[in-house]
Amino acid sequence: MASTASVTPDTLAAIDPRVAAFLKRCPTRLLIGGEWLAARSGDTFESFDPSTGAVLGTSAAGDRADVDLAVIAARRAFEDPVWSGMSPHDRTRLLLRIANIVEANLEELAQIESLNNGAPLSFARAMITSVVDTFTYYAGWPTKIYGETNPSVPGILNYTLREPVGVCGQIVPWNGPLSSAAWKIGPALACGNTVILKPAEQTPLSAIRFGELLIEAGVPPGVVNIVTGMGETAGAAITDHPGIDKVGFTGSTEVGKKILAASTSNLKRVTLELGGKSPNIIFADADLDAAAATSVQGFCFLSGQICVAASRMFVHESVHDAFAAKLADSLAHFTVGDPFDATTTMGPLVSREQFDRVTSYFAIGRADGARVAAGGAAVDRPGYYVQPTIFAGVSNDMRIAREEIFGPVTVLIPFTDEDEVIALANQTEFGLAAAVWTRDLGRAHRVARALKAGTVWINTYLHVDLISPFGGYKQSGIGRELGRHSIDAYTEIKSVYAKLD
């Protein structure tokens, strides 16, 4: 069983003075057209520190009326020559200024993220570093969005242009608020689009501070607008708004289906990065020590609240017990505690709602006949903490093996041969990620090709690079983010035929 950190620092005494000042003033405003405006309704909502349950701050509860204003501002900015006529080189410089200002305020942003979603501070710093990297990467794209000249009949010049899609509504989750926003805003701006960002209602604070930094970086008014609020109000208004040309969403499959249905109002373009139930396959010849140590991170990183969590571990029957013992031993060195404690490797779940959901699966797994090999309970301390949990004696048809729990819970399922485990691994509605552990390179690549997943790791887990596409098969999403493939999502292709005589 994982250990529990004993240090619980007083929040306001532990954080950066800039963060304390931000939380004290915590602007209950929406960023629309370069100005900070109160929600039209005047409504607000509270944000909480999941490590204590205490209120962190208050945000404006934007709704349809505010989204209408944001769309007007974004459309005006999209058509304004200040933005639409900006040279590719100046667009590159702007994206680099965003990267630089985020880097200059990295500690402040990381602490706000950690306080609001419970991620260990070291993890939050890494995620904000990835925001810097994302904007730096996309800063290189404005000068490389090429059209092409096509072969044509004599007297006709035929060429293509890549042009921005328009106004993009971006709805991001609470597990990586700014890193997910960067994945969407970076390519959108590189291609010349404008953005309306809707952060998750659980974690709006870092987006608000990010908006302030965007203004300092010189982003023209209306190019990035930020509307905080509930998914069923502000989020729903974005998905069916006739003035929005594209929606990008990261979150649950259930909500993704609703967004896809709502987008038919004007047939807006949609990209979705949704849920997962990722198979992590351990063959008999695998390096069991490395597989166990890495797989713990695979299902406990960010308290298991990641779409690619290694939540189904298929282990060859000949090494099942040995691997289970090594996995439990690796888990024993995992420390659950206060996100600001340097020894903490796993913080709390993000909210009471998520806490109740995850702990309900402890009873569900036991009722289905699974055995708790480690964890299986809440942590007895303030906040939304649960023990990292391993279920053994699991079959692939149990609910804990089929449903996305979104917490630090994994299941061990034995298998006998390669064909069987491929079939079992693909026996899911999801297809976001998977992993294969083996010393046999032929088998590794053979199985990787057979798995129905957007990302497959071989003898590693959780490695993501901005230059490679990310997304899912089946009900894990539509489209790809990152790399050159994201440019397709944020551009339209126009064919031009010019008569030369």
How would you describe this protein?
The strands form 6 sheets. This protein has a 7-stranded mixed sheet, with helices on both faces. It has a 6-stranded mixed sheet with strand order 10-9-8-11-12-21, sandwiched between helices. The protein has a 3-stranded antiparallel sheet with strand order 6-7-22. It has helices at residues 11-14, 17-25, 64-79, 81-84, 88-104, 106-117, 121-139, 177-190, 205-217, 231-239, 253-262, 288-300, 320-332, 352-367, 399-402, 418-425, 441-450, 485-489; strands at residues 3-4, 30-32, 35-37, 44-49, 54-60, 149-150, 156-164, 167-171, 194-198, 224-226, 246-250, 269-273, 279-282, 312-316, 335-336, 371-374, 389-392, 409-415, 433-437, 455-458, 477-478, 491-499. The termini are far apart. The chain folds into 2 domains: 10-274 and 477-495, Aldehyde Dehydrogenase, Chain A, domain 1 (3-Layer(aba) Sandwich), CATH 3.40.605; 279-466, Aldehyde Dehydrogenase, Chain A, domain 2. 39% of the residues lie in helices and 20% in strands. By secondary structure, the protein is an alpha/beta fold.
| Low-confidence spans | 4-9
Rg of Cα set = 23 Å
Terminal CA distance reads: 79 Å
- Report the portion of residues in β strands: 15-25%
Summarize this structure briefly:
The chain is α/β, with parallel strands linked by helices. It has 18 helices and 22 strands.
Set out the fold topology.
Elements: E1 3-4, H1 11-14, H2 17-25, E2 30-32, E3 35-37, E4 44-49, E5 54-60, H3 64-79, H4 81-84, H5 88-104, H6 106-117, H7 121-139, E6 149-150, E7 156-164, E8 167-171, H8 177-190, E9 194-198, H9 205-217, E10 224-226, H10 231-239, E11 246-250, H11 253-262, E12 269-273, E13 279-282, H12 288-300, E14 312-316, H13 320-332, E15 335-336, H14 352-367, E16 371-374, E17 389-392, H15 399-402, E18 409-415, H16 418-425, E19 433-437, H17 441-450, E20 455-458, E21 477-478, H18 485-489, E22 491-499
Parallel strand pairs: 1-15, 8-9, 8-11, 9-10, 11-12, 13-14, 13-19, 14-18, 17-18, 19-20
Antiparallel strand pairs: 2-3, 4-5, 6-7, 7-22, 12-21, 16-17
Helix pairs in contact: 3-10, 5-7, 5-9, 6-7, 6-9, 7-8, 12-13
